User: What shape does this take?
Amino acid sequence: MLLVGTAPQAEAQVSSVDPSQQGAQDLAARLADKYDSIQTMKARFVQIATSQFMDDPERFSGLLIFSQNQYRIETSTQTIVTDGTTTWIHNRGEEQVLINDFVEDETSFSLTSFLRNFDEEYDVRADGQESLSGSQHDILFLTPRDDFSAFRSVRLWIRRRDLIVTHLVVIDLNDVTMTFDLSEITVNPELDSKTFAFQIPADVEIIDLRN
Assistant: This one.
């Protein structure tokens, strides 16, 4: 009697689940697992920030290399390096190097850290598919569970063949929209031991902000 009585209820619960929502949850879990397993990554990037308060979009492009909480970002005007303990910022135009203790800032957007942990802090829903650069992508739309999150929403374009994010759009609490495009992505490349050690150039002003 117990088994007969509970079977229809269980069946009804399963049938009430939105298949697209279940698929989105599964994809989110696989994506987080994928990035948690990545030890190093190298990619070219383009970042564009827009807002109704900006006169013009802000555009940055360059090279991104990361390994866990270590990363190196190189653009035409700036190099940012952290070894997980110390951060160096070399502003070429000002001929200046800022040195500071590494602090993970929750108000800034760290792509790699975000993709390892997003499924714990955001609700996820499927948002269609799109072909980018000849590859099919699944799109996830994320909204924070915490009302005080630094971001209003995040949209991810996930390359279907290898679960790599190649495009994303982030909207922060100030309604600044940040769009990221990643290309020439290499997963787990061998990196030189000096990748995350910054060599301070000669004839620059050094501003040391460490405690």
Notes: The radius of gyration is 21 Å. The longest strand covers residues 122-132.
